[in-house]
Amino acid sequence: FPPGPTPFPIIGSIWWINFRADHGSLKKLAKKYGNICTLWLGHKPMVVLYGFQAVKDGLTTNSADVSGRLQTYVFNKMANGKGILVSNGLIWKHQRHFGIGALRKLGMSNKGMERGIQTEARYLVEFFRDKAGRAFDPSFPVVHAISNVICAVVFGHRFSLKDETFRQLIEACNYIVAFGNSYLYYISEVFPWVAEHLLGPTQKASSCCDFVRAFVRQEIKSHREKGKIDKPEDFIDIYLDQMEKTEDDPGSTFDEDNMVQSVFDFFLGGSETTATTLRWALLYMLAFPDVQEKVQKELDAVLNPSHLICYEDRKKLPYTYAVIHEIMRFSSIVLITIPREAVKDTTVLGYRIPKGTVIMPNIDSTLFDPNYWETPHQFNPGHFLDKDGNFVTREAFLAFSAGHRVCLGEALAKMELFIIFCSLLQTFKFTPPEGVKEVNTDFIFGSTMKPHPYKLRAVLR
Ligand code: HEM
Fold it and tell me: CA-CA-CA-CA torsion for 60, 376, 421, 311, nearest 10 degrees?
């Protein structure tokens, strides 16, 4: 194994990072042991990758070999091996491949994703306008809008802000995501018996999972009652169609449990992540008013005010598109990917790694790698622009990870962020509440890195 702190019996060497994989402890670990090193979670080896080169090589050189997910106490409780996010083997291959195809199909069809996003952007603009320039916290309407985009994709309809069950769904998803990188998560994995019998938060996370699944089953029931339609309009329609097509295939993995879990995974992977990024986007506009002004200048110069913003417009708005990428880089909401597992004996950066080893790629360390970014610790949209002001992609931009398990919602997330961000900035000038002189851009540590709660004023332009 690559080098690392000495493991103790039962607890391993996870004590070295104080039972928490945070920015400081992972940096300290890399400084002492190098860009690839080993930690032991109980008797399970975990190989931690740090910096762009190590993360990229580790995830892409033998990509299929490191494409597994852990089958642990918490992951089994969460998904029981079903769906996409934490499944393995044939189930993962089939469900992921199908999920990507379905998203593509919905993106291209008439009642596509873009329309769902434009609708949510419009509701959000209305909500902000109703505040009439008074200071307010944008978190809930933002989370609501983003979750509704997933609803449009998977259920084919949206929910109102006042819908209590939908509010509970959002809260349940947030709770599950927050549990994912907490002390209690690690303790639950090492001592499942304690988690099962004594830890309230672990039991609550488990009942939140049950709640989300029951919610999805209810939607499936309504789709079934609606009967077969000629042209599938959402993910459940497409999935039911697939189940019918494969019902005589004994090797098929297309069944109701996998459908429920795949929908669950879209909510879990796609709501909190994108909503948190959008909250950072608005906060950075308060913190960097010069950037906000430049975006608005570009929007005004290129778009007619009555034009319905679509994703295609990004090609005419290179500065704005670069700002959105810099928001994703600078907010760096994911510290490590959902842990991977080696599915066979393999080699990672020259080290022999046995099957079953956990791989922890540090995404944050790629987004701030001083060897690949000119000013890593400065908010600088120029990172994504060439000298003529054209948008450029950057190889070290691994916010969505890399390899076989790369985020399957990347295109959807970028489309959402672009359309909603542009719609808001076209309509409003964002400022901090009166009297607030300093904007706090520090993060709150968690499964995703969130901004501290803040208020803003949205003043009609
Ligand atoms: C800014 C928004 C987002 C970020 C930063 C993000 C980031 C990530 C990351 C880092 C992973 C782990 C990949 C790995 O294991 O190497 C992931 C996986 C995943 N994401 Fe996203 N994601 C975002 C939005 C979305 C959206 C909108 C969806 C909805 C479709 C989504 C669905 C998924 C799924 C299903 C997986 C699991 C893929 C697999 O295990 O095969 N994500 N995402």
Answer: -40
* Low-confidence residues of the chain: pLDDT under 50: none
Q: Is 196 helix (H, G, I), strand (E, B) or coil?
A: helix
Which of helix, strand or coil describes residue 53?
helix
Report whether residue 401 contacts ligand 1, using a CB cutoff of 6 Å: yes
Q: Which atom of ligand 1 is nearest to the CA of 328?
A: 1
Tell me, what's the pLDDT at 109?
Answer: 60
Distance 265 CA to ligand 1 centre (A): 9
Distance 212 CA to ligand 1 centre (A): 18
User: Is the Cα dihedral 264, 46, 349, 65 positive or negative?
Assistant: negative
Q: What is the residue type of 450?
A: K
| Ligand 1 center–CA 400 separation, angstroms | 6
Which H or E run contains 47? strand 44-49
Tokens of 357: 């080893």
What end-to-end distance do the CA atoms of the chain give, in Å?
Answer: 59
Residue 203 to residue 184: CA distance in whole angstroms? 11
Tokens encoding 47: 């190989």
Question: Which pLDDT score is estimated for 7?
Answer: 86
Classify residue 143 by burial, with Cβ atoms within 10 Å: 0-12, 13-18, 19+: buried
Query: pLDDT digit string (tens) for 303-323?
Result: 988 889 999 999 999 999 999
219 lines ligand 1 (CB under 6 A): no
Reported ipTM: the value is 0.99
- The count of other CB atoms within 10 Å of the CB of residue 219 is 18
pLDDT at residue 108, as a whole number: 66
Ligand 1 pocket residue status of 277, Cβ below 6 Å: yes
CA 122 to chain CA centroid, Å, is 23
